[in-house]
Every structure is written in structure tokens, then in C-alpha cells.
Amino acid sequence: MRLALTIDPLQDGDLLFAQQLGVQQIMADIARWDAPSLAAACNRVEQASLHLAGIENLPVQAYACAIKGEQGRNDEIAQVCELLRRMGQAGISLVGYRWALSGPAPLPADGQARGGASGTLYPKGAPPSSAESEGGPERQWQNLAYFLHVVLPAAEEAGVRLAYQPSLATLAAPGLLRHGEDLERLFQLAPSSFHGLDMDHGLLALAGEDPGTIIRRWGGQGRILAAQVRSLRATDGSYGEGFLDEDRKGLFRALHAYREAGFTGPLRPAPSPRMVGDTPWGHKGYAFSIGYLRAMLQAMG
Predict the structure, then answer these.
(1) Percent of the chain with pLDDT over 70
(2) Is the terminal CB of the chain with fewer CB neighbours within 10 Å at N or C?
(3) Which of 4, 3, 6, 80 lies closest to 271 in space, CA to CA?
(4) Of 187, 190, 189, 183, which is closest to residue 213 (Cα–Cα)?
(5) What is the pLDDT of residue 186?
(6) How many beta carbons lie within 10 A of that of residue 273, not counting itself?
(7) CA neighbor of 267 nearest in space, from 55, 25, 56
(8) pLDDT tens by residue, 151-182
(9) What is the b/e burial string over 237-253, where b = at least 16 CB atoms within 10 angstroms of the residue's CB?
(10) How do strand 195-199 and strand 161-164 relate by DSSP bridges?
(11) DSSP assignment, residue 51?
């Protein structure tokens, strides 16, 4: 495992922050996907003596018709393949992707986290859009199969691995990968070694799964390409953010499972509650999370 942080590598302040926290890898959050911008992201991370592990995720709106199975998806898929080629030419070897256009709209929860920190609540049971729900989950699986059938060969040719990212939308409404057994179907659907998972064991735990079992199984097969950690708790009608140490036993077990599975990819924190005087992005929260993760990894030896 390598401590990582998701930042915009074209922002000097973000790179300095990552350096000061002592992270080893960067997952890039970028707005521009043209070849010069991708090359600039690589160069700036390298100049900062950091390693660019990959890009956080493909812009989901770039393949919205593919998700919905609507007319125009072939043009979108061709554009995604072009983005992958540009990534490969720039030397970027990993990118996440999602298969949901929208999730529950987050709600601010000022003062609701520990010590009066400002957290975020995600409502349960938010219905999917009519386009996403049409045909039900089976239609979503068919659309995903169509997408991967074309995109994965392009990813292999470009040398770019695709990492599926579960999201809170999968918990809030019927959809793909709500449970661990869905991963079996996903990897049967796309058995390429260039296809894997951006693991979020907190989401699986909320879905009632045993994260350690899933991590050991799929991590041992090299399917976990990246991981992010968070502390989520179920409340009446919503899911709430907490600080990482509020789930220290679960996190410690998950980190041991990652190590036992031989996971060596980027491990990064998801957003946490914002402390007093924090920035809108949450610099203090990220600093706490990185420090806590480093301490746990050191305690594991």
C-alpha cells in the first residue's frame, strides 16, 4: 500500500500540501483531458518528486448515453477510447469509472459530527432517474457489458487499467454492485487483467458485507487496483460522515486484509468532516486522515 491523495496536480498549492503531508502517490482530479494537459499533470507531479498513480475517474457525463443505453452511446464510447489513448501516450496507467449518473444529493450537517465538526449527510432511498431505472438493474448490466466490450480492448492497447468505483448511489437506490456477489458477475463480464476495482470497504460494510473477505478474495487475484477509506455510519434516513478513528477497528481489520492480499496500489482517504477553521475543500480533515492512516500502517509493522 502507498499513501495517496486526490488533488488537482495543476495547482501548486495542492502539490505543496501533498508534499507536506508526506504522501507517496497522487490520484489526479483533472478538468481538462487534452493531450497537453495530461502531459502537464504528469510532469508537475514528477517535478514534485511524487508518483502519479492514476486519474480519479473518467468524466461520467462523457458516457452518460452509454450508461442509459441511449442513442449516441457509440460516439461517446469512441470518445472514451480516445481519452484512454491520450492517457496511455502520457504514461498514465490507471483511471476510475462509475456506472451511475447521480446519487443522493449530499446535505450539509453543520455541527453534527464529533466536536461540532461539519459533516455531510447522504439521504437513503433516493430514487434513480427515470432513464437509469428504465429496465431495472438487468438493463444496467447490459449497458455496462456493451460499454466494456468496446472500451476494454482500447484500454489494453493503451496500457491503462480501468477501476470500477462503487458509490453511495449504489446504496441509496437499486443498481449495480450493491453486494459483494455482484463483483463475481462484474469480473466474469470483463475478465481482462486491465479491469478491476477501486475498493471502498466502507460502502460494502454499510451494505452488510464483510469487507475483509472481499478484500482478500479479489485483492489476492490482483483485482483491487486502488482503494479509498472513509468512516460512514447509518442514521435514520441517511448515511453520515465521520472521522477515520471512529471506525478504527473496522479500518484496522481492512488494512490487514489489504496487506494479506498483497495490495500495493494507492490508498487514499475520502472526504471527512470539516474542522473548525477548515477550508471548503477540507485541508485539516485530509491532514488528520493521512496522519491517522500513516500511524495505523506503522503500527502494523
Answers:
(1) 89
(2) C
(3) 6
(4) 183
(5) 92
(6) 26
(7) 25
(8) 999 999 999 999 999 876 665 555 566 667 78
(9) ebbbbbbbebbeebbeb
(10) parallel
(11) E
Q: Burial of 294 by CB count in 10 Å (0-12 exposed, 13-18 middle, 19+ buried)?
A: middle
Burial class of 105 by CB neighbour count within 10 A (0 to 12, 13 to 18, 19+): exposed
Are 152 and 143 in contact by the 8 Å Cβ rule? The answer is no
Contacts of 32 (CB under 8 A, 6+ apart): none
Surface-to-core class of residue 188, CB atoms within 10 Å of its CB (0-12 exposed, 13-18 middle, 19+ buried): exposed
Q: Distance (Å, rounded) from C-alpha 282 to C-alpha 297? A: 23
Tell me the three cell numbers of residue 58. 473518467
Return the C-alpha cell found at 80.
472514451
Q: Residue 196: phi, psi to the nearest 5?
A: -155, -150
Of 156, 171, 163, 141, the residue nearest 234 (C-alpha): 171
DSSP 3-state of 120: strand
Q: Kindly state the DSSP code that residue 124 receives in the 8-state scheme.
A: T
The three-point CA angle 111-252-235 to 5° equals: 35
pTM of the model: 0.91
- Closest residue by Cα to residue 144 from 170, 122, 168: 170
Residue listed under C-alpha cell 461520467: 60
- Please state which CATH number belongs to domain 2-102+129-233+247-300: 3.20.20.150
